[in-house]
Amino acid sequence: MDTIQLARQLGKAIQEDERFLNLQLAQQLADADAPLQEILGNYSAQREALVREAKASGMDNPKVVEMQTELGRLHVDILQNENMKKFMSAQDELGKLTGHITQIIEGSATGQDPDAIEYQPARKGGCGGCSGH
Fold it and tell me: What is the SS3 string spanning the chain?
């Protein structure tokens, strides 16, 4: 079997994985959550209005500051929604799976033993932990 065929099989296996299925369900729940969709729509409209206002009057304008505060409030509302929490959690779990798969592929392509490659979570927060910085 060639490598591309194996990659296609891997893609099918991912789509059968519980983490993928959980994300699909969480997406459906979020899409069906009318209050969440309203908040998301308001957030998008507010963000676009903020960008326009900031371009027109500058970031120090009191109206821009007020709009930023409202955008932050909407962001908190989005993050506190139970269906959004489920979606983000499911997305994180699938991300861990695909991250591990990517690490195995990249490690294998550089000569590492695929069976010896363990999952290493991605670093967050910039390059503070990188050597030389």
Answer: CCHHHHHHHHHHHHHHCHHHHHHHHHHHHHHHCHHHHHHHHHHHHHHHHHHHHHHHHCCCCHHHHHHHHHHHHHHHHHHHCHHHHHHHHHHHHHHHHHHHHHHHHHHHHCCCCHHHCCCCCCCCCCCCCCCCC
